Amino acid sequence: MNKFAIITDSTSDLTPEIRKARDIDYARMMVSWTDVKDKKDHEIFASLDWEVYSQHEYFNLLRDGNRLITSQVTEQEFDRVFGIYLEKGMDVLYISCSSALSASVHLAERLAKEKYSKKYPNQRVVCVDSLIACFGEGLVALAAADLRDQGKTIDETAAWLNEHKLEYNQIATVETLDYLKRAGRVKASKAFFGNIFGVKPMLISDAVGNNFAFEKQKGRRNALIRIATFVKENVINPEEQVCYVSQADASQEDVKLLVDKIKELVPQFKAIEIIPFGPIIGATTGPGTMGAFFRGKKVTVVGDN
User: Fold this and answer.
1) What's the CA gap between 213 and 203, in Å, rounded?
2) First-to-last CA distance in the chain?
């Protein structure tokens, strides 16, 4: 039985510290744009290490009016990161961004069948479609690390993840509708009037892996409080887990409000950890986006998007 590596991608939002502590790697997606200031074309890896731009600098690109275009993991990047472990004689468990949001998992599955099985006949690449993104995908990867550390095989781990992955919940809200409009996710008229009236969509991941607004709140404070009440309504066994609060260069006041409200409503959590909202989904939702990620009731709703 081969040892196996756990690999996610840029949408998992796993910090360098978490990846190192749990022995998880990731495949990088891409971000490109034509800068509104220098008029030059730019392309960078969607790095979870923020080595080219800090999180603040990255989200300032959006504040400056740039439209950031994201793209899936390339074949060359899969070759690079999978190859590190396949060359060592290890199998690879790839936990992908939701297939409803990215075609990365389909490319990985094709490469596993047509390329890696021939080049590495004694190793395997097993793909799990997480049906979620952001730190929800990260939580699925952390669950895989727990199972691997308990001595489970790659097949046992993949089977458990496929059975339980919809138990990983996420809820988020944006600071303004402008970035969803720029990304083509919201009509200009809806964004205009929504911003005037302070409408804040509450975004969750559904049972088929799409993100959709299941309700709206009026005002930033109400939206952040609704995140906390959603956590309370849907969490299971909070005493056994950490709740992760994700922020896209949001204000300290907003972060404190959300963290304090979750602590008030669900004091049983082992801890609440604040993490950066990553470069892929953040390119669409924009600076100020905030969310919470936890294990809870199985997601059964399917959005109407």
Assistant:
1) 4
2) 43
Average pLDDT over residues 79-90: 98
Dist. CA 124–CA 132, nearest whole Å: 24
- Whole-number Å distance between alpha carbons of 202 and 175: 11
The bridge status of strand 168-173 relative to strand 211-218 is unpaired
Residue ranges of the chain that CATH labels 3.30.1180.10: 167-295
Question: Between β-strands 41-45 and 30-34, what pairing exists: parallel, antiparallel or unpaired?
Answer: antiparallel
CATH of domain 167-295: 3.30.1180.10
CA atoms within a 13 Å half-sphere pointing along the CA-CB vector of 254: 25
Which residue shows structure tokens 């929504």?
Answer: 194
Looking at 3.40.50.10440, 3.40.50.1970, 3.30.56.10, 2.40.40.20, the CATH number of the domain 4-29+72-166 comes to 3.40.50.10440
3-state secondary structure of 176: coil
Provide mean pLDDT across the span 63-76: 96
Element (H, E) at 5: strand 4-9
Q: What pLDDT is recorded for position 185?
A: 58
Q: Cα separation of 140 and 156, whole Å?
A: 14
Q: pLDDT tens digits, residue range 154-212?
A: 999 999 999 999 999 999 999 988 877 665 554 443 433 344 346 889 999 999 999 98
Q: Looking at residue 49, what DSSP letter applies?
A: S
The answer to whether 95 and 109 have CB atoms below 8 angstroms apart is no
**Start-end of CATH 3.40.50.10440 domains in the chain:** 4-29+72-166
